[in-house]
Design goal:
The protein has helices at residues 15-22, 36-43, 59-67, 81-90, 103-106, 109-114, 129-143, 176-181, 228-232, 251-261, 277-284, 292-300, 307-315, 329-340, 384-401, 416-428, and strands at 4-8, 28-33, 49-53, 71-74, 94-97, 118-120, 147-159, 187-191, 194-198, 208-212, 216-222, 240-247, 349-360, 366-376, 409-411, 434-439. It has 440 residues and is an alpha/beta fold. The strands form three sheets. It has a seven-stranded parallel β-sheet, sandwiched between helices. Strands 10-11-12-7-13-14-16 form a seven-stranded mixed β-sheet, with helices on one face. The protein has a two-stranded antiparallel ribbon with strand order 8-9. Helix 7 (129-143) packs across helix 16. The termini are far apart.
Length: 440
């Protein structure tokens, strides 16, 4: 058994997964973090846990830690995953992450297979639970002789309705900068047999609306490139393959305005940290002596009384408040969002994941299968984001430790031997999809 587990990173989503592994008494879990106090808080009270300090930029320090363990979990920012993976490859260690497989990570597939190593990626929530729950339905449809004609998969981390109390309808359970940077992504999907391409600048231009029973209406915008999932999921008959992101109503128009103003630009500039938000905005919208809100409305081509401008005014970008000590607009905006859109103590987040399948059965009849997960954070406890990201990872790593995943190379959790036990264990932990079927 591979019972020595190294967890790199002790950030916002780490705790539930680390605690799950610590509760497996035959595992020894070492948590490494630049801020060792964060690691200590995760392992406190567990005899099989250890906290160590690590600067991931120190290659020798990282190597020695990897050599002392059997399975390496990277919960570091995604930019470090390949660095860790190369060390794992060099030192014959298995690895797991919750992040998307990058091209660099994919390039390690063949050498990892040669060495009999498993690098399990995309085993969080999105990506992760979305893959596993989708494949469970796709496989069951095909087992019954049917085929999937249309597939939509939407996911979003949002405030629970009771704690949705700001004009943006959003609070940050992870890096604001990461959320804002996603606004630059172009998108591509297949719908009714046609490939749809959306430039990054137009990502928020025409959001769809989706009603979720018991929760109301949400906006949906497309999530990156959905086309590879036709092959990844084996959707050979599908006319539609689209993955998207849920947000509360008004988010897309507001983020589009923020993009159009120029606030997601991360070009370094001198002396801008001396400015107030009012003065910085005045420069961005070329304000003369007129009203800043009106000039912003004119630049955006919207009405001065628009709710978009109400949200921006609430955020504080028309105020005399000093900007943060940064050298670019993106970081300044991220700091302001972090300051205003936060979860207060005791507030709950919500993770909403939904798949919709139009299925043609073996007898020619058609069904709409809807599979939905609505998961809430625990007041004064773990957030839903932390639970749904780190618990699938931890369950997968436990299976790796027990030798129950017979795979090598760079993998994602789309095989029955992986997704069935992981989804079963997640259901035991209270994280589960609920299915409905309607005849069409």
């Amino acid at each position: 058994m591979k019972n020595k587990i190294l967890v790199l990173g002790a950030g916002l989503v780490s705790k539930p997964g680390v605690r799950y592994l610590l509760n497996q008494k035959d595992l020894k879990v070492t948590v490494a973090s630049r801020t060792v106090s964060k690691a200590q808080a995760l392992v406190e009270g567990f005899a099989n846990g250890e906290a160590v300090s690590l600067n991931v930029e120190n290659a020798e320090e990282l190597k020695q830690l990897i050599l002392a363990n059997d399975i390496i979990i990277s919960l570091l920012p995604w930019v470090h995953h390949v660095k860790v993976a190369r060390q794992c490859l060099e030192n014959n260690r298995d690895m797991a992450t919750t992040s998307y497989v990058s091209e660099e990570m994919r390039s390690l597939d063949a050498p990892a297979k040669e060495k009999g190593l498993l690098f399990l990626n995309e085993i969080g929530v999105d990506p992760g639970i979305d893959h596993m729950s989708a494949m469970q339905i796709i496989d069951s449809v095909e087992d019954a002789g049917g085929k999937v004609l249309h597939f939509y998969s939407y996911c979003g981390g949002l405030p629970a309705p009771d704690d949705n109390d700001n004009p943006f309808g959003y609070k940050f359970s992870w890096s604001p900068k990461g959320v804002v940077l996603a606004s630059r992504n172009s998108a591509r999907f297949l719908e009714n047999g046609e490939i749809v391409n959306i430039e990054g600048k137009n990502l928020f231009l025409n959001p769809r609306t989706e009603t979720v029973e018991g929760l109301g209406e949400f906006e949906v915008y497309p999530n990156r490139d959905s086309l590879p999932y036709k092959e990844i999921y084996g959707l050979k008959d599908a006319l539609t393959v689209m993955r998207g992101t849920y947000r509360n109503l008004g988010w897309c128009a507001t983020l589009k305005a923020i993009v159009d103003i120029g606030l997601v630009d991360d070009t370094p500039r001198q002396n801008i940290s001396r400015l107030s938000w009012h003065d910085l905005m005045a420069g961005l919208v070329n304000k003369g002596d007129g009203d800043l809100r009106l000039e912003t409305a004119n630049k955006l081509g919207i009405d001065k009384d628009s709710q978009i401008l109400d949200r921006l005014e609430w955020l504080g970008i028309f105020s005399d408040e000093q900007v943060s000590q940064r050298d670019n607009y993106l970081d300044m905006l991220s700091d302001l969002l972090q300051e205003k859109l936060y979860y207060a103590d005791g507030e709950k987040d919500m993770l909403l994941l939904r798949h919709k399948f139009t299925v043609e059965n073996a007898d020619g009849s058609k069904d709409l299968i809807t599979s939905t997960m609505i998961d809430y954070g625990i007041p004064h406890g773990d957030s839903s984001m932390a639970r749904t990201v780190s618990l699938p990872l931890a369950v997968g790593v436990r299976m790796m430790a027990e030798g129950k995943i017979n795979l090598t190379g760079v993998q994602i959790p789309i095989t029955r031997a992986v997704y069935e036990p992981v989804l079963t264990e997640l259901a035991r932990l209270g994280i589960k999809m609920v299915e409905t079927k309607t005849s069409l």
